[in-house]
Design a protein that fits this description.
Elements lengths: L4 E6 L1 H5 L12 H11 L4 E5 H28 L9 H33 L4 E4 L3 H12 L14 H13 L5 E6 L3 H4 L7 E3 L2 E2 L3 H4 L5 E4 L2 H9 L5 H24 L6 H14 L5 H12 L3
Parallel strand pairs: 1-2, 1-4, 2-3, 4-7
Antiparallel strand pairs: 5-6
Length: about 300
């Protein structure tokens, strides 16, 4: 496939993990490496609109959750620590305020880097259209992955896959690299298909939509193997630790959601979406094609 186009899609979770410094090893360097391969025309980044929309919401929610958790612990300081001087208590509270400010500052820096990546000439944005919405609902009704077993509304992961499918359906000879921590919904559940902890076979419901797709659970391994980056074992382990937490959150979210979604709910949802969502202009689709001509 030497003459094939190389496309990359990075799921929302990968961008979020770089933003709030929640775990040791979270930083902006991996995003700078992503920018580098785009700048050197090594790959075309495909950006479904749903990722861009989802990212803003998730970052707001994660920041609010972090501030709330730190605030609750801040309120407990001095209540049980007998003998602590008032000055020490105030110093501890002040340090916790600094932690919040540091995370907010880092999140702002990362947002700027992500915006730079999203607006790069080697990034193609895939607008959320009526056709993508309809195909996503059909896929969900059929119970196909990556839809979660229990969910309210339209599954954003399904929208991502259908966006990629729609864009690539007219392309010949390509490789798609897909990166997401969520191997519960994107990966094949069969243990025999696991090559290692970072490279997992894509679920056949998803893989059947594409000519060639490779699935990675962390961006570091993908950058090492496909673009000659040099992340070491310790950095990979930190990334895998983040994956474990992400998977636990995914399972927890599924357990707290309603157990089923009806066809009538889906129909109502798509009717509302169709009435509110404009069709893309011919210029949107042409722009992507023109970019590809310069990036082969």
């Amino acid at each position: 496939m030497d003459e094939s186009y190389k496309y990359l899609c990075v799921d929302t979770s990968i961008f979020v993990q770089c933003s709030l410094l929640q775990i040791e090893g979270d930083d902006i360097n991996v995003l700078k490496d992503l920018w580098d391969i785009l700048e050197r025309n090594k790959v075309v980044l495909l950006l479904p609109e749903v990722i861009e929309l989802e990212l803003d919401k998730v970052l707001r929610d994660e920041t609010a959750s972090l501030k709330q958790a730190i605030g609750e612990r801040k309120g407990l300081i001095g209540q049980k620590e007998e003998g602590l001087d008032k000055r020490i208590i105030e110093d501890l509270k002040s340090k916790m305020d600094e932690v919040v400010k540091e995370r907010e500052s880092n999140s702002g820096t990362v947002k700027k880097e992500i915006k730079r990546i999203f607006s790069h000439k080697s990034t193609i944005k895939i607008k959320l259209t009526n056709d993508i919405l309809l195909e996503s609902i059909k896929s969900m009704i059929a119970g196909k992955k990556p839809m979660k077993k229990s969910i309210k509304g339209i599954d954003s992961d399904t929208l991502i896959i259908q966006s990629l499918k729609t864009f690539l359906s007219s392309k010949d000879s390509y490789e798609l690299y897909f990166c997401s921590q969520n191997h519960i919904d994107f990966g094949d559940s069969s243990p025999k298909d696991v090559v290692n902890s970072s490279i997992i076979a894509i679920h056949p419901d998803i893989g059947s939509n594409f000519e060639s797709i490779l699935y990675y659970t962390n961006l570091l391994t993908l950058l090492n193997e496909k673009f000659d980056k040099k992340y070491g074992p310790d950095e990979i382990k930190k990334a895998e630790k983040k994956e474990d937490l992400a998977v636990k959150e995914t399972i927890s979210d599924e357990l707290t959601q309603s157990p089923s979604i009806s066809t009538s709910q889906l129909s109502r949802c798509v009717s509302e979406s169709l009435s509110a969502s404009p069709s893309p202009s011919p210029q949107d689709e042409t722009t992507g094609t023109l970019k590809l001509d310069t990036l082969k």
